[in-house]
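Sanity check record (used in CI):
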Amino acid sequence: LSAAVQKFSQSLQEFQFECIGDAETDDEVNIAQSFKEFSQLLNTMEEERRRLIQNADDVLITPLERFRKEQIGAAKEGKKKFDKEAEKYYSSLEKHLNLSSRKKESALQEADAQIDKERQLFYDASLEYVFKIQEVQEKKKFEFVEPLLAFLQGLFTFYHEGYELAHEFEPYKQQLQFNLQNTRNNFLSTKQEVEKLMNRVRSADQDQKPPGHWTMEGYLYVQEKRPLGCTWTRHYCTYEKDSKVFSMCNTEAKPTAKQNSVVSNPTEKFRLKSCIRRKTDSIDKRFCFDIEVVERHGIITLQALSESNRRLWLEAMDGKEPIYNLPAILSKKEETYLNEAGFNFVRKCIQLVEVRAGLNTMGLYRVGGINSKVQKLMTTVFSPKAASDMDLDPDTWDNKTITSGLKNYLRCLSEPLMTYKLHSDFLLAVKSDDQNYRVCAVHALVHKLPDKNKEMLEILIKHLLNVSTHSESNMMTVSNLGVIFGPTLMRSQEETVAAMMNIKFQNIVVEILIENFEKIFHQAPDPNVPLPQPQSRPGSRRSRAICLSSGPRKPKSLYTPSLCLADADSDTFSSSSGSTPIGSMDSLSSHSSEQNSSSKTCSSPQTKDKPPFPGLRRTPSSLSSSEPQGPICTSSPDSSSREDAGRMDWEDSCGVNSVLKAARSSPAPTKAPHTEAGIKSAQLNRSNPISKILTHHRRS
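Expected output for Rho GTPase activating protein 42b:
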């Protein structure tokens, strides 16, 4: 068993998580590191098991073997001597009794003296043998029991070590559960968005150009002239209209370069001069057009994938083909603008939710309303005939319809509230490893938003902060609100799967806004904070995950499992009754391994004297009068490197004095009183095996 566990532990140590995307959240980093933590835990237990087996040999088998050889062996030797002397004595006695009385007196006296001598030797051998039997019979009472007691003490120590390890592992387990649940929530949110994207792609026109970074991009076949004719090779091409830069990368040629284990072909870039549609009768291929570039003489003939695809390329390059307007991605209805009617609608929704105690509604904003009612609400409020300051009737509209309408309005804005322009900057800010910098960078970027956007964002975030303070009843923690409003407030302009992978970071931006509301919206940003710059995340960052051996760890705040079930026609996802809990009591995506040091507010503060785990009893080493309980909120720049929990001094805990102390002042297994009695007995007799096992059991 021990060998199998050690082999399993080695497999966990060597296992590597590979994640897609250009960055990982703190939750994902800790999850990727968790197997190494498990491996270390298993190794520690197997080391204790190995020590237990070694102690069994030292304190049980060896003493019993020594007792057999020294004591029982000596008794056997005494028996041999007794048998020899008895045989000699009785033989002499028989001869003595057979002497004739007619012998001379001197001969008889000599015979009597000889038999007395033989009798004395026999008595001495008898006494020694009896004494040895008595000694063995008495000594076995403690020589047998003491080694067994010492072995049991080692066994208790092994199990107590497991108890202590489990007790110390509890904060990390709680933390990892938070990380797992936040990652699960991010996955479900991202999965929904990807499924929506898949459905839009399936239903959209095949050649429709979605909004993206490039004016036009896609596959084109390029004509390459050869001595014996020409060939057509497939290239992936992009075109930027403002700079007139056209680039193409051959996707059929063998790779010529390899960087970071990824093979790639070089990309050719040209500056466009002109674009002309190719006449059908001038070439035997369909859907062709010619371009002229500054860097090459002559023309480059390209073949599109279809007629409509060629029209899109010609339109993007200002070719001679008639220009066709692209289908609108968003309808130009009144509700797609950030105007006074929109501000009034948002304020009325928030006021209605807060006034009628809707903040305590389970799953507020997570559980959606009926789509038909939501559409009716939007039509009523944003009708051309509706007044700009129209009130919402609380009897007509329930909380689910109001909250879904608010989300729908923010989701359908022609440009997301946090703008396309600053979208990538916000993502780069929260991908930083520095917790303080994340907050400062988001703070600075918020103040770069247009005034209307910033005003609307402040109204919304203030409301969400209010919602999060009622998380005990509505279960909408900061983390859960981030999952709901991340994609709503930071919609990506480019709808690709790669963009969907950034949803988890959009959630973190919203969490930072909620947790640092007072600082971000009511204080001026630091002008010395540099704006985020694109950078690759170093591979060594994973080593920063919470580690059992990294130092003292504080227990996290208590997590209460709860469920949030959506209606059958809800427009948001919900957890099933058999799923894991929705999320942590505090936000963990933005700072899953430590409390954000620059945060001025806490969503779930705890009193200092209240233990974070009411149902979890702590070891003496984790009880410190100077150790604060619950989340710490400070602006100290050094606080971001705080360790997160407490570890026992194992060397001391395995000694006699510390075990006694632990038995008296900490929760121990039910056998603790017997263990303490055994240790006290060991202290009375330092030479017995119990003291030896405790001395041997010390850990360096």
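The chain has 20 helices and eight strands. If this sentence no longer matches the regenerated tokens, the check is flagged for review.
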